[in-house]
């Protein structure tokens, strides 16, 4: 199964080849990749379905600048996960700190009414920034 490492730190897999290797359908591969290499774990995943379908995976911390621009920058002011991604991408905290804050966000999202967890974590990030953390 060919795995290609592209410039900029991306790994590209053929959905079809991986599905054949594990004797399953390509959509199962996509599901597993998207859950294991989720943004909350510090990865960016791109995929395309069809005959030439592929899955590309890259660490949030090594992805080329242009790869993330459209996904997060414009949402960072009101979306906590986007804000975390932008700050991590800019090198303002480590992967460990990103994972800790992402886990806190998940707990807040499960524990509080819709949207309040996002707002609370954004306030935490803003307070950390105001105090000079990053």
Q: Number of folding domains?
A: 2
Oligomer type? single chain
| Contiguous helical run count | 6
Mean pLDDT: 77
Poorly predicted tracts of residues:
none
Number of strands: 4
- The Cα radius of gyration reads 17 Å
Terminal Cα span: 42 Å
Overall body shape: elongated
Strand content: 5-15%
Task: Provide a brief overview of the structure.
This protein has 134 residues and is of the alpha+beta class.
Fold and architecture overview:
The structure is a single chain. The protein has 134 residues and is α+β, with helices and mostly antiparallel strands. It has 2 domains: 3-59, Phenylalanyl-tRNA Synthetase, Chain B, domain 1; 65-130, no CATH class. Helices cover 51% and strands 14% of the residues. It contains 6 helices and 4 strands, in the order ββααββαααα. Helix 1 (15-22) crosses helix 2 (26-36), helix 3 runs antiparallel to helix 4 and helix 4 runs antiparallel to helix 5. The chain is elongated and about 50 Å long.
Name a few traits of the molecule.
single chain; 134 residues; Phenylalanyl-tRNA Synthetase, Chain B, domain 1; 6 helices
List the helices and strands and how they pair.
Layout: E1 3-5, E2 11-14, H1 15-22, H2 26-36, E3 43-48, E4 54-59, H3 65-72, H4 80-89, H5 95-111, H6 116-130
Antiparallel strand pairs: 1-2, 2-4, 3-4
Helix pairs in contact: 1-2, 3-4, 4-5, 4-6, 5-6
